[in-house]
Amino acid sequence: MRVLSRLIDLILPPRCAFCGKVMNEDKGICDDCIAQIDFLNHDICYRCGYPYGNILDKKGHKLCGKCAGKRGGLFRLSRSAYGYDDFSKKLILDLKFNDKTDLAPLLAKMMYVAGQDIFTAGVDVIVPVPLHYTRLLKRKYNQSALLAKELGKLTGIPVLYNSLVKKRITKPQVECSGMERIKNLKNAFALSHPEDLSGKRVLLIDDVLTTGSTLHECAQTLKKAKPLSIDTLTIARAL
User: How far is it, in rounded angstroms, from Cα 205 to Cα 151?
Assistant: First the structure.
């Protein structure tokens, strides 16, 4: 198998998922491109994951001004692997719209690293943000479900694909403004198996956090099942 793998690499050498450059080893992304990605791995708010956290709470965690000024909230912790910009969004768009599902393991590994605080705090089940079945038929796959599946492999945590469902068709969020995003998703989700979520620490998975409307509406629905906690983990977030 090792010889076969080397032969394949000679015929079809590994290329960078960003720039397409041939690499000596299959790391997914070349060193030059890695250097250009804005990884969110330092000076972030412990609670919401947004840069930059510079206020210490009683436990010594860094918080942003918004989180320091409020108690609790829908989410226990939120994390993203990197900032969503003109450079880094290519991987997400390729996964989401260009059928490059082979990127899911690479992106899930990034999410796994970014979500270490969440996994340390404890997760019982992973739940992907669902697609309406008509959009799923058109796209053929749910990118959030693919990411959740890979995270399940990395962590051994069960993935619940059908506990949260999207019950009505909505406009794509990119076509909506801030307030329209909230109205667009109002009551768009429903619980299918709430008993699987009751008393559990739930990790909600999506590809990108922009205004947070999708994750917020999903969490509001999940709360009806009375989970112990809800965390969010995405590949990227708008900064």
Answer: 9
